[in-house]
Amino acid sequence: MFHEHLPALHLAYSNPIVRQLLIEMHVIFEKCRQSAQLGRITALETLSISREYRSALLHCADEIGGDDENVYMRDFTIWTLFETMFFKQGDTPICLDLISWGLESFTFIDKLVQKAFKELDEGVDVGGGSYWRTVCMTLIGCRFDTCIDFLSLLKGDKAAERFINILSNLDWNWLTDEGKIPKLDRWKHELASALSSGAFTSNRNILFLAQLLNGDRKVSVF
């Protein structure tokens, strides 16, 4: 049987979504080339071009779906981190920039949240199914309000109540004001003291979350 072997570029252009991405990228880089001919590209122009580029990647990922979505989301996430590290003006603390990067890039967490809520609606017990994985990912992704919403479903759990109270008191905007760093230090001390006193030992999952939030190395790689 005869098999036609198309070049890789032809295969790429055979998908209308990928074809549109390639066209958008050409437009973006042509704009970059033209700007460079007029003189050195400014920081604001570089940032604008970068945002157009990752916007095209995100649109492609949303449209293409399936296994290929992960490929484009990976590229989007990596490029967004590159933009955060090298193209932004640097007028905010890097920790805050990385939090913003996570909130924007880790869209898989939103899908986990939807899945967990669907399971709860279908009668899966709190703590079952994808519940704890979702709680962990919302904490890592700095979606603290959503994390608290899930943990609040653990009625009568003293460890969860203590953790919710501590997490509720955390405001990452403290990072933007040197005068508020002492508040962050006091919060960190409160968390460390609660861990030392065994406040979370009655629920090993909550203990893991508290250790993770505290930056304990033994749970940082899981």
UniProtKB/TrEMBL annotation:
Keywords: Membrane, mRNA transport, Nuclear pore complex, Nucleus, Protein transport, Translocation, Transport. The keyword ATP-binding does not apply. It comes from the Eukaryota. GO terms for biological process: mRNA transport; protein transport. GO terms for cellular component: nuclear membrane; nuclear pore. It holds the Pfam family Nucleopor_Nup85. It is found in: Nucleus, Nuclear pore complex. Belongs to the nucleoporin Nup85 family. Functions as a component of the nuclear pore complex (NPC). Component of the nuclear pore complex (NPC). This is Nuclear pore complex protein Nup85.
